[in-house]
Amino acid sequence: MSQTRIKICGLTDPKGVAAAANAGAAYLGFVFFPRSPRNVSVARAQELACDVPPGLMKVGLVVDADDALLDELSARVPLDMVQLHGHETPERVAEVRTRLGLPVMKAVGVADADDLPALDAYAQVADQILVDAKPPRDATLPGGNGLSFDWRLIANRRWAVPWMLAGGLTPENVAEAVRMTGAAQVDVSSGVESAPGVKDADLIRNFCTAAKAA
Ligand SMILES: O=C(O)c1ccccc1N[C@@H]1O[C@H](COP(=O)(O)O)[C@@H](O)[C@H]1O
């Protein structure tokens, strides 16, 4: 049995938070991006954060956030990490990290080998990198699309900082994804939902069981 660490992202209600915590997730993610079906308000996130057991990492996902949103989150939600899921440059990643005084995880989209150098660049400035599928050009969302990429591209690759695999993971494919890539951490959102934005406790449990057994 591996010690795969799991992030359940896009939680919107106390039931989802409890399901993820009970299933053994290490990170719980909250999305602050109005276009997302998983978007939560700052007030809602503040409430949900109270339900998170101590020791679990509360991750705030933002997309090209301005300083006003970052400052509001910092003042009102007890986050443990921020996930940058937009077009933030390495300079902006460093700036956000300093501004918030929190660890920052930068999401990088991968579709082919040309996308791999960006992972090395962001690994110099972020605390963690999230290796996600690159969204299609016409996608409404920059992530959370349930799309995976060719895992062979990163098989047994290592970076200067811890990293997490994301993109189209499900209870059915997560074990294979872990075996092919050597990922020690995995992140899922749409793969544990019964409908966009609606987390399913059984799928969360099955995902965590499969990831840990990989
Ligand atoms: O989940 C969203 O709605 C979302 C919105 C904006 C940026 C990222 C988003 N989700 C993140 O995308 C990856 C992969 O998600 P999936 O498992 O393929 O659905 C994950 O990190 C989500 O947190």
Automatic annotation (TrEMBL):
<keyword id="KW-0413">Isomerase</keyword>
<keyword id="KW-0028">Amino-acid biosynthesis</keyword>
<dbReference type="InterPro" id="IPR044643">
    <property type="entry name" value="TrpF_fam"/>
</dbReference>
<dbReference type="InterPro" id="IPR011060">
    <property type="entry name" value="RibuloseP-bd_barrel"/>
</dbReference>
<keyword id="KW-0057">Aromatic amino acid biosynthesis</keyword>
<dbReference type="Pfam" id="PF00697">
    <property type="entry name" value="PRAI"/>
</dbReference>
<keyword id="KW-0822">Tryptophan biosynthesis</keyword>
<comment type="pathway">
    <text>Amino-acid biosynthesis; L-tryptophan biosynthesis; L-tryptophan from chorismate: step 3/5.</text>
</comment>
<dbReference type="GO" id="GO:0000162">
    <property type="term" value="P:L-tryptophan biosynthetic process"/>
</dbReference>
<dbReference type="InterPro" id="IPR001240">
    <property type="entry name" value="PRAI_dom"/>
</dbReference>
<comment type="similarity">
    <text>Belongs to the TrpF family.</text>
</comment>
<dbReference type="GO" id="GO:0004640">
    <property type="term" value="F:phosphoribosylanthranilate isomerase activity"/>
</dbReference>
<dbReference type="InterPro" id="IPR013785">
    <property type="entry name" value="Aldolase_TIM"/>
</dbReference>
<feature type="domain" description="N-(5'phosphoribosyl) anthranilate isomerase (PRAI)">
    <location>
        <begin position="6"/>
        <end position="208"/>
    </location>
</feature>
<protein>
    <recommendedName>
        <fullName>N-(5'-phosphoribosyl)anthranilate isomerase</fullName>
        <ecNumber>5.3.1.24</ecNumber>
    </recommendedName>
</protein>
